[in-house]
Amino acid sequence: MNLSQANGKVPIEVGGDSPWLLIEWPSREAFDALWSSRTPPANIEKYWAMLVLRKDGAKLSEVGGKFSVSRERVRAIEARFLRLMKAHYLGQTLGTATPERSHAQAKNR
Known about the structure:
Strands 1-2 form a two-stranded antiparallel ribbon. It is mainly alpha-helical and 109 residues long. It has one domain. Strand 1 and strand 2 (20-23) form a beta hairpin. It starts with 9 loop residues before the first strand and ends with a helix. It is globular. 60% of the residues lie in helices and 7% in strands.
């Protein structure tokens, strides 16, 4: 599942009987916090705009054309966002301190 299929929510892959959990779209402040240690500030604004377009149903090629990047680059940014959101969500629900720690735990499984 991707952002354009999730009706304005963020799909988190959790497996089991219900393989997807749809969580609320993050606030801009939460989004900035997720990306701040991983991305130059100038790109955070661009990524936010790209992902909002995807959330609103824009196709990869449409978003890529608007920002002069390939649709594969848009897909990669979206995939990274979904991984960050999953790590953040797991960190909150499992009580781990940081998204990085949750992401590392998920990779080691």
